[in-house]
């Protein structure tokens, strides 16, 4: 059973919440910064370090930042806090949505079930690929992996619990981006969910190159009988179409709440 | 068992060789230092990320190619007093060849080299498809395996800078090892094809000695090269190894090899004196590749090839850390060590350079002594 901090709120395991907090507050040379968003689709780097393709843990990102600063002969201590995020983005350090989801879910399964997260990778058909996905599970985890029925099942809005994912397939104008949000806490009143708190990694267009990253938002459930898209999504104090996460959900070809079989 | 007077004489002579090498190296070291500083043969910070690491900033401006002190001293003393076709000719030739290769790299990196790039496979494949000149397309297609070799060899090395590329170094090291193997197999007779199997005896492995020599010469030369990254590390560890090799050569009756190893020990003592922190110069590829090759070949000559993992312990640990790091990067997608070679990992963990170097020396000494013990069986 997941711990219940208060009578009306359920959340992920404490260690998982700490992990999310770590992503929100990377510690680099004494400065705290939000982990940037990085999508490998643009660079298409293959066989690289996980941390350089948007799949690293917070520790990996912090350490890689130090190593890159050494290579570039930069003193991180002399870089102002606001420039530090630019340094990370310019060096392809960050996390993508499925990378973040993988690490959160992995930690949650480990904390609550005392075992590592094991996923099936439907795209891994050849023998070589099957070995590779076992060796590099985070790097090979994509939204398609998590949406697969072999790994997750659809749940109804009224049944939602922390650890569930909101999966958006084919979002945007051209329906070319898949996205995933992880539900980290839910407020109930008294038994049905009223507010869903989620964490995800995304770059809003209006935030520019350096504005994206790991962020939190919430969905206020006003009517349990309607779909998720009919509820009120709030992020960065923006609601409606101004909330780009909601816009992505609205333009998605498929929008589902799914739960890991392992949870 | 008493040691015969003749054996004692040989040991005395070996010690004299060591003392002569130390003294002569000390005598001409100031000249070398002056030369290296005058022509600014220094480590290039652009291609050496570690120079930005905290305490390592002091290494800016410290010249490389200090290994010339060891190599030239060994060559001169051996040519004058210990030249023997059957034994010392080959080690000196291999060491010189490897040192020349390293020296070329050092010089290219610092004085005459130009930055060169290797096309990505993807780029070449695209050119094969779209290039307007069919001859060019044909050429690119025919040389595709070569391009693939060049690209994949980059996995094994750091940023090549203006010096030799990894594939060029590998080929030249292969040639050096190949020449040594050919000479040993075809010119020097049956004795050289034997290896000592500890706790068992000697085994004649015939032609298999050829690939083994090539492998160990290349592997050990590069291993020492990787260890040459901290003041005193490679020099100190090599002193221990060559001192024990002197002892082993003497025990097994390889007199000229005992003298050669003693000469190397002596030259290394003088070198390390100037190389301990704060270093007046660093070994550079000229010294590390040369001494690595000499270490491998001298161990092979006295039939103790299988002891190399003990006699070159810390060097092998360093090169294995690099191999593991590369494996971790491509297979697991993460760094196993904070940085490779291993001494940088400990440095990033906060160990001081002195602490790392001395602990590595001690660990190395322990394994070399273990190797010596095994060699007695």
Automatic annotation (TrEMBL), chain B:
Record-listed E.C. numbers: 2.7.8.13
GO CC annotation, single: plasma membrane
A single MF term (Gene Ontology): metal ion binding
Cofactor annotation: Mg(2+)
Compartment(s): Cell membrane; Membrane
Pathway: Cell wall biogenesis; peptidoglycan biosynthesis
Catalytic activity: UDP-N-acetyl-alpha-D-muramoyl-L-alanyl-gamma-D-glutamyl-meso-2,6-diaminopimeloyl-D-alanyl-D-alanine + di-trans,octa-cis-undecaprenyl phosphate = di-trans,octa-cis-undecaprenyl diphospho-N-acetyl-alpha-D-muramoyl-L-alanyl-D-glutamyl-meso-2,6-diaminopimeloyl-D-alanyl-D-alanine + UMP
The entry's keywords: Cell cycle, Cell division, Cell membrane, Cell shape, Cell wall biogenesis/degradation, Magnesium, Membrane, Metal-binding, Peptidoglycan synthesis, Transferase, Transmembrane, Transmembrane helix
InterPro entries, alphabetized: Glycosyl_transferase_4 (IPR000715), PNAcMuramoyl-5peptid_Trfase (IPR003524), PNAcMuramoyl-5peptid_Trfase_CS (IPR018480)
Pfam families registered for this protein in UniProt: Glycos_transf_4
Enzymatic class: transferase
Chief location category: membrane
GO process terms (BP): cell division; cell wall organization; peptidoglycan biosynthetic process; regulation of cell shape
Transmembrane regions listed in the UniProt entry: 14-37, 60-83, 89-112, 170-186, 206-226, 233-252, 286-307, 313-332, 357-376
Highest taxon of the lineage: Bacteria
Family according to the record: Belongs to the glycosyltransferase 4 family. MraY subfamily.
Protein function: Catalyzes the initial step of the lipid cycle reactions in the biosynthesis of the cell wall peptidoglycan: transfers peptidoglycan precursor phospho-MurNAc-pentapeptide from UDP-MurNAc-pentapeptide onto the lipid carrier undecaprenyl phosphate, yielding undecaprenyl-pyrophosphoryl-MurNAc-pentapeptide, known as lipid I.
Protein name as it appears in the record: Phospho-N-acetylmuramoyl-pentapeptide-transferase
Native organism: Candidatus Magasanikbacteria bacterium CG11_big_fil_rev_8_21_14_0_20_39_34
Gene from which this protein is expressed: mraY
């Amino acid at each position: 059973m997941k711990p219940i901090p208060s009578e009306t709120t359920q959340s992920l395991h404490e260690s998982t919440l700490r992990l999310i907090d770590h992503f929100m507050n990377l510690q680099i040379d004494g400065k705290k910064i939000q982990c940037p968003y990085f999508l490998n689709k643009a660079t298409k780097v293959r066989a690289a370090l996980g941390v350089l393709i948007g799949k690293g843990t917070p520790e990996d990102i912090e350490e890689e930042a130090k190593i890159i600063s050494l290579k570039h002969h930069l003193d991180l201590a002399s870089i102002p806090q606001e420039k530090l995020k630019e340094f990370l983005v310019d060096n392809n350090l960050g996390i993508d949505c499925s990378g973040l989801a993988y690490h959160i879910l992995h930690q949650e399964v480990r904390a609550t079930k005392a075992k590592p997260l094991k996923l099936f990778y439907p795209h891994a058909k050849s023998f070589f690929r099957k070995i590779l996905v076992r060796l590099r599970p985070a790097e090979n985890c994509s939204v398609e992996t998590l949406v697969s029925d072999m790994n997750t099942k659809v749940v109804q809005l009224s049944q939602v619990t922390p650890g569930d994912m909101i999966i958006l397939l084919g979002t945007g104008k051209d329906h070319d981006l898949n996205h995933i949000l992880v539900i980290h806490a839910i407020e109930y009143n008294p038994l049905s969910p009223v507010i869903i708190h989620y964490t995800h990694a995304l770059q809003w267009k209006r935030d520019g190159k350096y504005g994206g990253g790991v962020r939190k938002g919430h969905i206020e459930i006003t009517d349990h009988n309607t779909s998720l898209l009919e509820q009120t999504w709030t992020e960065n104090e923006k609601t409606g179409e101004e909330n780009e996460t909601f816009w992505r959900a609205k333009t998605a070809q498929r929008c589902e709440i799914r739960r890991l079989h392992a949870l | 068992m008493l040691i015969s007077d003749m054996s004692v004489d040989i040991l005395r002579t070996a010690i004299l060789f060591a003392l002569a090498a130390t003294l002569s190296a000390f005598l001409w070291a100031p000249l070398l230092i002056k030369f290296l500083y005058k022509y600014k043969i220094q480590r290039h910070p652009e291609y050496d990320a570690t120079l930005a690491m905290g305490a390592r900033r002091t290494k800016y401006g410290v010249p490389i190619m200090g290994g010339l002190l060891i190599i030239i001293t060994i060559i001169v003393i051996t040519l004058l007093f210990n030249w023997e076709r059957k034994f010392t000719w080959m080690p000196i030739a291999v060491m010189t060849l490897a040192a020349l290769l390293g020296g070329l790299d050092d010089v290219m990196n610092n004085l005459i080299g130009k930055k060169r790039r290797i096309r990505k496979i993807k780029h070449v494949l695209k050119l094969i498809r779209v290039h307007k000149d069919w001859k060019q397309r044909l050429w690119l297609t025919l040389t595709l395996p070569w391009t693939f070799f060049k690209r994949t060899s980059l996995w094994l090395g750091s940023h090549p800078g203006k010096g030799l590329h990894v594939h060029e170094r590998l080929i030249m090291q292969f040639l050096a090892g190949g020449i040594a193997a050919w000479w040993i197999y075809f010119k020097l007779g049956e004795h050289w094809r034997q290896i000592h199997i500890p706790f068992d005896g000697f085994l004649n492995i015939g032609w298999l000695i050829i690939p083994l020599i090539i492998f160990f010469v290349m592997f050990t030369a590069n291993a020492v090269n990787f260890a040459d990254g901290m003041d005193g590390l490679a020099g100190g560890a090599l002193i221990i190894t060559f001192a024990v090799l002197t002892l082993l050569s003497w025990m097994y009756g390889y007199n000229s090899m005992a003298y050669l190893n003693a000469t190397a020990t002596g030259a290394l003592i003088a070198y390390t004196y100037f190389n301990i922190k704060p270093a007046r110069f660093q070994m550079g590829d000229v010294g590390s590749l040369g001494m690595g090759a000499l270490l491998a070949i001298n161990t092979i000559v006295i039939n103790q090839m299988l002891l190399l993992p003990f006699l070159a312990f810390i060097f092998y640990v360093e090169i294995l850390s690099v191999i593991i790091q590369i494996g971790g990067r491509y297979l697991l997608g993460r760094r196993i060590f904070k940085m490779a070679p291993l001494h940088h990992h400990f440095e990033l963990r906060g160990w001081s350079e002195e602490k790392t170097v001395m602990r590595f020396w001690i660990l190395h000494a322990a394994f070399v002594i273990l190797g010596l013990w095994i060699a007695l069986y």
